[in-house]
Structures
1.
Amino acid sequence: MKFTAHVSHKILVGAVASSFALIGGSALAQSPAVTVDFAELASKPLMPAGLYSSSVLDSATDAPKTAAASTGSAVSVPAPTAKAAAVNSGSWPGAVPAGSPGPFSAMAVTVKVGSTGIGVDLATPLAHHFGLRTGASYFAYNPTLTTDGMNINGELHLQNASTSLDIYPFHNTFRISPGLTWNNATRMSATLFAPGGSEFSFGNGANSYSDPTNPVHGTANVVMGHGIAPRITMGWGNILPTHGRVSFPVEFGMQYTQKPTMKLMISGNGCGSQTEADGTVDAGCGPVDQSDVQEEQKELNNDIAPLRFYPILSLGVSFRFGHPASRGE
């Protein structure tokens, strides 16, 4: 008998031949003529009858095939395995479901409020469990306060624009969003004024009184790091909801802005003591000691240093427009 087989079938054919020699020897001896198609047997998996059964999924149809048992009888196999069914349905890890959203197939608008101001985000899907989001926030506030005898009229401007990649790793609404703040324009400034005759102090210097003829005054300016800052946030709420059109995303995290710096400039005269009930001061007046001003600036810069890790916290409401088209649809 001449036999030619594919290289990938050599080991299997050997096993088939051995099985027939050991198990079916007596049957072959009693049979007047037996014809064995080894090529056909080599194309099918070998399974000992009565021990187990399996199915071979056809790559095109996933339909179960029959396998030949070692006795030569056909063994009927069950439907596709649980893993095959999970792959087909898209729930198996790493599988791309037929219903996953196509890139840029929909858009959502989020209105939010938080530590970066009042903002608007635009989001769109990129792939299964991935989305792209970009937005901007702004807020202005003018606080007025008094500290160390100085009246402070401040201006706070929260302004930034950012882009983030939304990753949903657990197949639910929780997300992790690495990103980049590419327009960090948050800044603070203030004017300072000590009315004539009022008490004030800077740094480690002794308390002094502002000269009514040349009151103490100045400015303070804070720069919040560089204009570009990496950021990382986490949150809940799918910004592009697949069920319904409205969601309520929550986000928290931080951006690294590098060390913020304050520049303090003070001028005017300070006096050593107050002697009259009407607020007039003695003759011991002179320019503000700039070493005390520098000490005050150093203390303030140490106070604001933690803001290099600027906190991000926001609450919002998201509205989806359009239908997320699915791959394969």
Note: Residues 101 and 325 are 5 Å apart (CA to CA).
2.
Amino acid sequence: MEQDNNFVNTRGNPDNQPLIFIHGYLFDYTMWKAQLEYFAKDYYILSYDIRGFGKSNTNDYQITLEEWVDELFDLIYYYKLNKPVLCGLSLGGYIALRALQKDTSQFGAAILCDTHPFADDNNNRIRRANSIELIQQKGLLPFVEKFFPTCFADTTHGTTLYNTLFAKAAAHSKDIAIAGQMAMLSRVDTMDVLQNPPIPIHLIVGQNDKRTPPSKMEKMKFGNTKLDIIPEAGHLSPVENPQKVNTSIEKFLGSL
């Protein structure tokens, strides 16, 4: 069964174990297309556009990460999901980690892709401020031209995949792009969730991830948490090498 409520997509049998997929900054839920198609036969899948991105419209651009976390809990309540497994990439990982920190009891496990638990330090705050200024003064396109190459392995640059996703990212409003930067600036450190993981957690990272390199995600390994490094992939590992990512996710889910 598949339902598409404009910005919320559900697939599979509602009686199966629920999985929630949360996309990254300037993307939408369709970035998980390969995972949605692969896992729908055995799981109940919910993927959605974070408020303001994709087809999820908003008139309020004063957004905090906490509001996006509350949105996630609202979806869990509305769709009556029992102990879903969270799978978030980059910004989606920030949301997943904060949700786990806020109320771990709601979840069965978590998969964190190309993300990290660290709040912005001073250098990253300045970098975000410069990004906001660039978008304000020159529009979204110059920012995307600078940002996008860092999201992919060099071998992905110039491909049809790259160009298609670039066009979708650049089609967002500059207001939500700025709001997203401000929301990420507002997030708190969530390392405590990983240091004593209350539920099974699995880590995935692209071997050529420039934004969250494997060395950074290695610091997130505690207890039985494992890190799978995906070859031929950058920051968008589920998009660039979906077969390897699907295998990694499937193996982890099978171990639960």
Note: Residues 122-138 form the longest helix (17 residues).
3.
Amino acid sequence: MKKLFTLTALLLCLGATAQAADARVYIDISNPAVRRMPIAVPQFTPASGGAQSPGAAKGTDILIKNLNFTGLFEVLNQAGYLGGAGDEFNPRQWSRIGAELLASCNYRVQGDRLTMECRLFDVLDGKQLVGRQYDGTMADLPAMMNRFADEIMLAITGERSVFSTLIAFTHAEGGNKNVWLMDFDGGNPRAFTQKQSLTLYPAWSADGSLLTYSSFVNRHPAVFVHATSGGNGRMIINQSGVNITPTFRNNGQVAASLSFAGPTNIYLTDAGGQIIKNLTNGLNIDVNPTFSPDGKYMAFVSDRGGAPQVYILNMDSGEIRRLTYGHKYCAAPNWSPKGDRIVFQANTGGGFQIATIKPDGSDLQVLTTGGGEDPSFSPDGRLIAYASRRSGTYQIYVITASGQEIGRITNLSGDNSDPSWSPRGLAGN
């Protein structure tokens, strides 16, 4: 992927980098009851002797929006600040307003070139945690702020977040459905496929270079694989009957639900669509496969017990066990990239809600109350994108894995559903 700007590490006042082996982890993201960390983000200002730039100053709002999106920070109101960041870091100035962290940037604008110098400080310990310089154009400002937000997350939690990710989803318009892409927060929505048909069930390959989906060809659903770099996609499965809900395994194999032999079973194929194995081999309807991160287990939906429920298949032994109980209809499972939980939609009596469960069947948690379908974990396992029609049409929302509402991220016409969160590294770098 083409780099839009350059990144230079600043060595100013850095005793040790946040990536050091003995670096302190400020926020334990495995704790569902984590406290939001107070952070001050003063308005960005020009470097010494530089001119004001309203365009560059907008980076403040972008960074604040990014930090709020994580659900981990409490960005303190600028009205209460005791002055700006200035050239010298004064821990007392920021501790007096309750800040534990300070994120500050200054900028230089020369013609069409923009340089941002950004720092993160630990107010309580009085030290700098991150220092970065980003060079590019004004158009690169959002990408710069995405990169800095990821550096903040790395320093505070020990891992990067979602700021370099995309979300694929289905967008309905004019009687057709196509796969669209958008940035992690709903920004820059655009068409990925442009088919005069129904295109459904997008799913990413492990490295993000491919998307697979089902699309109708002559009123018949077939499975496609489509390079995210462009093109028209390549049809890999077009058996008689249905060919739906494809997904990638971690080794590049594809699993999809096919009915050419009668019952709708889940089959494993190679990357070209050549069938390797019938995985479920039953007389019922089996759909929606999703793999554990190591590819050793597959969760899927089956009505073999009467109503649709989530089951887990051991890929080595072939053993199948039922995972979900207590709800009359469960569907659309998605395995966390962390491997620790499976998210799905559960009919609670008043409609579908988003729920998660451990792979051993314990610790069921219903996360939403306003309706939710088609959930998808973010690559860090902290966030969940899902579709809901609480506003009248289907739009896409995000919550944390513990159920904290982040908010609605689409505002498009028609129905927008079936989100699929990409791996890291596809955008914002």
Note: The longest strand covers residues 127-137.
